[in-house]
Design goal:
Blueprint (H helix, E strand, L loop, with lengths): L8 E4 L5 H12 L3 E6 L2 H13 L3 E6 L5 H15 L4 E4 L14 H29 L2 E6 L13 H20 L5 E8 L5 H4 L3 H10 L8 H12 L10 E4 L12
Parallel strand pairs: 1-2, 1-4, 2-3, 4-5, 5-6, 6-7
Helix pairs in contact: 1-8, 3-4, 4-5
This protein binds NADP nicotinamide-adenine-dinucleotide phosphate (NAP).
NADP nicotinamide-adenine-dinucleotide phosphate (NAP) binds next to α1, β2, α4 and α6.
Length: 255
């Protein structure tokens, strides 16, 4: 049995939908006090209502991860509500589609500023509180796309997800003696609103590529985050875990 995380303070960016919502719900079920974020209050507050109705503790903070002011305000709110931050899941992210030969600098910058700079700003904003307390768990949602695999028309997304891992490893090293661990999850294809928006043909193709012949669930990712957040993972830092139903394994196309 792992040490319970009941009473721990979790901040999850992009906690209003998809993987972040799954993380918020699973951690709340385990008794964590959750502050979930996103840019749209109605969606975020609906998740808070669901968690509260199920007996959990959650609040919503409206903010954009690409804004330094918003990330500082998010941390102030977590301290005000929960006395500090034990766990940060820097999860908010977006995708986009453009071939590298036609991609505009604005398209590139939008993805990098949300996925990569946004992860940095969330981490940077939480660190003073974690350092002061001498403990913390930072968990980034990266991807297999970029660090391990590639999809045409997603070079900006792939670069942002690979970039997160470079930041994660460096931060883990810098913080190794601070009581703070920094790790990342690399999801494969997880059934979330973002993936549903990619269309049924995308989902059909991806399902065919996964050896388990199914897409992942948000809970599959949340339980990996729960491991990194545990006391028992205290000696694990600068590491990644792939959660992809075996998608990166095949050397050849198989049935
Ligand atoms: P999603 O269903 O679209 O949810 C994205 C979440 O991020 C929402 O809560 C969204 O809320 C929030 N968000 C987006 N832009 C934001 C911004 N600028 N500031 C603050 N919040 C923002 O996406 P998802 O599939 O769950 O993806 C979550 C993370 O997992 C991303 O980092 C993604 O790259 C990664 N990932 C997903 C998959 C997958 O298969 N689904 C695979 C690998 C990696 P608002 O729109 O209200 O802001």
């Amino acid at each position: 049995m792992f040490t319970p995380i009941a009473g721990r303070s979790l901040v999850v960016t992009g906690g209003s939908k998809g993987i972040g919502k799954g993380i918020a719900q699973v951690f709340a079920t385990k008794g964590a006090k959750v502050l979930l974020t996103g840019r749209h209050a109605a969606t975020g507050n609906a998740v808070v209502d669901e968690i509260t109705a199920a007996g959990g503790s959650a609040a919503f903070f409206e903010g954009d991860v690409s804004s330094w002011d918003d990330m500082q305000a998010m941390v102030s709110r977590a301290i005000e509500l929960h006395g500090g931050i034990d766990i940060l899941c820097a999860n908010a992210g977006i995708d986009g589609e453009a071939g590298i030969a036609e991609m505009t600098p604005d398209e590139w910058n939008e993805i990098i500023s949300v996925n990569l700079t946004g992860s940095f700003l969330a981490v940077r904003a939480c660190l003073p509180n974690m350092i002061e307390r001498g403990s913390g768990r930072i968990i980034l949602t990266s991807s297999i796309t970029g660090p391990l695999t590639a999809i045409p028309r997603a070079s900006h997304y792939a670069a942002s997800k690979a970039g997160q891992l470079g930041m994660m490893r460096t931060a883990a090293l810098e913080l190794a003696q601070s009581g703070i661990t920094v790790n990342a999850i690399m999801p494969g294809n997880i059934l979330t609103p973002a993936v549903v928006a990619s269309g049924t043909e995308y989902i059909r193709k991806m399902t065919a590529t996964v050896p388990m012949k199914k897409l992942g669930t948000v809970e599959d990712i949340a339980y990996a985050a729960l491991y990194f957040a545990s006391d028992e993972a205290g000696y694990v830092t600068g590491q990644t875990i792939v959660v992809d139903g075996g998608q990166v394994l095949p050397e050849a196309l198989t049935d």
